[in-house]
Write a structure and sequence with these properties.
Distance between the termini: 45 Å
Structural class: mainly alpha
Number of strands: 0
């Protein structure tokens, strides 16, 4: 079901209260839409991509041994950083899809997590109240600007990694 905020009737949402529609829990987490989820993801992953890129640049210098030690020591912190900040945002996105927060753990299954991540980015959420809260707020122009600014970062990173693999002969070029 497509969720079009222009065509939905918001009067029903305004009259309903949270206590009428939600199950009573101590800790309620809001919902987040597709574009806001993608923007949060890019903001979370950007420092990791930049740090890895800087380390790959420094690897070709006289400090290459130091960079290797740096990557081995810092990599667990990068994984923890992504997990601490990405899992709550993914939980809010699952709530927008009407799924339980336990679905977040499917993001830890290698291979299957790519399919789940695609679902989080592609599938529209519920157009009305669900058991996890009201509709997510509308995207502001700031969200569109930030998404536009950071959306090229993963593509640039993939390009640079593929060029590095071609340079070292690990990937056959199409020349």
């Amino acid at each position: 079901m497509r969720c079009d905020p222009i065509l939905t009737d918001e009067s029903d949402q305004m009259t309903a209260t949270r206590s009428d529609t939600l199950t009573s829990t101590r800790f309620q987490i809001a919902r987040v839409g597709r574009l806001r989820f993608a923007t949060y993801f890019l903001l979370i992953i950007a420092p990791v991509l930049i740090a890895v890129d800087m380390a790959s640049i420094a690897k070709n210098t006289q400090y290459s041994k130091l960079v290797e030690i740096y990557l081995y020591l810092v990599w667990p912190y990068f994984a923890g950083y992504v997990a601490v900040f990405l899992l709550p945002v993914a939980l809010m996105r699952f709530h927008d899809l009407g799924r339980s927060g336990w679905w977040v753990w499917t993001l830890l299954i290698p291979g299957y997590n790519l399919y789940i991540f695609y679902i989080l980015l592609a599938k529209p959420g519920f157009c009305d109240l669900n058991q996890y809260g009201p509709l997510p707020r509308a995207n502001s122009p700031r969200t569109y600007i930030i998404f536009g600014m950071f959306s090229a970062l993963p593509l640039i990173f993939i390009y640079k990694v593929s060029r590095t693999l071609v340079y070292y002969g690990l990937l056959v070029s199409m020349q």
